């Protein structure tokens, strides 16, 4: 198993580990990650905003699959916001990184001169840090035209598996909870989760952004949610809670008829 860990805090940290069964030798295969050192120009868009924003990301150091860099982003008052970013390049040429403000970056390196990144900052209520970002070298522009999945309508939770404090349980279908796609615009969406459970808030809005390969990320309070689509009528949701409960669960959602 190849494990990537992104640890927020002061200072933040990224760790890449190989896990093998006892008595098994690790694979001798060596992954040569794409060289992303140097300066990248980027443009990104945010939900509820038609303006495109641009800036610079400079990869200052890369050792194998681990890299560090600095993000420069112009603020509305003309000042420059600078953030340090640390990350890992996976064997599938995907990119995983964490910024100083705990924003999570997940990207796909398409070539030596193009990277697509989505940025999610849980807890940011107005979606400022839910962004869709394209990074290119030498001032080039991307000609990508993504085809986003259709998640319209209501979705029922037909199965749930949870893990908390090392214990796995299978609560099964959640008849008291359901999810509705309440808004979609380009790569961005809002999912509204309803609940009849007296210990759960009745309505939770979750903002997110579609990612490549049929997957997307969402943020809702101190929670990361990752979704992907096995088929047109099924969503699988991996929910990671960051509220001290140390809980993760897997939901299967089916489109309501």
How are helices and strands ordered from N to C? EEEEEEEEEEEEEEEEEEE
Count of individual beta strands: 19
Radius of gyration: 19 Å
- Measured by DSSP, the beta-strand proportion falls in over 45%
| Poorly predicted tracts of residues | none
Using the alpha-carbon principal axes, give the shape. Answer: globular
Tell me the structural class.
mainly beta
Question: What profile does the largest beta sheet have?
Answer: 8 strands, antiparallel, barrel
Strand arrangement across the biggest beta sheet: 3-4-5-6-7-8-9-10
* Distance linking N and C termini: 39 Å
Portion in helices:
under 10%
The total count of helices amounts to: 0
- The mean pLDDT is 80
Account of the 3D structure:
The protein has 257 residues and is an all-beta fold. It has no helices and 19 strands. The strands form three sheets. The protein has an eight-stranded antiparallel β-barrel. Strands 11-13-14-15-16-17-18-19 form an eight-stranded antiparallel beta barrel. The termini are far apart.
Secondary-structure blueprint:
Layout: E1 2-7, E2 13-18, E3 38-45, E4 53-63, E5 66-74, E6 80-89, E7 94-99, E8 104-111, E9 114-120, E10 131-136, E11 153-164, E12 167-169, E13 174-185, E14 188-195, E15 203-210, E16 215-219, E17 223-231, E18 234-241, E19 247-255
Antiparallel strand pairs: 1-2, 3-4, 3-10, 4-5, 5-6, 6-7, 7-8, 8-9, 9-10, 11-12, 11-13, 11-19, 13-14, 14-15, 15-16, 16-17, 17-18, 18-19
């Amino acid at each position: 198993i190849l494990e990537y860990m992104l640890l927020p805090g002061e200072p933040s940290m990224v760790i890449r580990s190989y896990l093998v069964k006892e008595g098994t030798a690790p694979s001798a295969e060596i992954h040569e990650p794409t060289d992303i050192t140097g300066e990248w120009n980027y443009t990104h868009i945010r939900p509820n905003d038609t303006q495109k924003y641009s800036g610079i990301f400079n990869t200052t150091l890369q050792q194998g699959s681990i890299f560090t860099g600095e993000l420069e982003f112009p603020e509305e008052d003309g000042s420059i916001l600078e953030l340090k970013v640390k990350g890992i390049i996976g064997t599938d040429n995907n990119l995983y990184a964490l910024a100083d403000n705990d924003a999570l970056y997940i990207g796909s390196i398409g070539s030596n001169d193009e990277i697509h990144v989505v940025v999610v900052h849980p807890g940011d209520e107005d979606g400022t840090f839910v962004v869709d970002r394209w990074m290119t070298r030498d001032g080039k522009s991307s000609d990508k035209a993504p085809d986003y999945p259709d998640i319209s309508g209501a979705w029922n939770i037909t199965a749930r598996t949870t893990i908390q404090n090392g214990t796995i349980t299978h609560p099964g279908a959640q008849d008291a909870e359901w999810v509705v796609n309440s808004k979609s615009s380009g790569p961005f969406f809002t999912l509204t989760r309803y609940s009849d459970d007296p210990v759960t808030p009745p309505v939770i809005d979750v903002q997110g952004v579609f990612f490549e390969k049929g997957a997307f990320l969402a943020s809702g309070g101190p929670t990361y949610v990752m979704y992907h689509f096995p088929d047109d009528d099924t969503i699988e949701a991996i929910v990671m809670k960051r509220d001290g409960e140390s809980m993760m669960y897997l939901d299967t959602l089916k489109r309501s008829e």
